[in-house]
Design brief:
Immunoglobulin-like, five-stranded antiparallel sheet, 0% helix
Amino acid sequence: MLLAASCTSLVVSWPSPQHVKKVVGYAVYVAEAPHLSKAEGGGCCAAGNGWRPLEGAMRAGGTSFEVGGLTSGVDYGVAVMARSGGADGGWGPPSEVLEARTMAPTDFPRAIGMPTIEEHDGCDTVTLRLPVPPPLSEPHTLA
């Protein structure tokens, strides 16, 4: 499984299972980090242990899904289950749990201001001073 992260979403994609003859749909589940330890032994995706199915993810077709509405800077786990059709149809076992952290505003470089000339000796050497950006606890905008 592959995953991409932004501040409020994770995009997960997975290969079609090789052991299932006819996949008729997938279910995608998500949990915050405190619940990931309960995923050991296939415990993910069960009701009542912090895992929740995602609306719109139980569908036929595609093998990717964007998990939106997440909190910035939080660790999450994502798991996928395939549903097979035919006489022996049903939900297969959950995939391995893929763990990822949504990005936080502090993950991005801070903007710096325009340098000023501190000293120069004519034509050979110029010393520049970069302004110190504000601490991350203060609001700032990227220029």
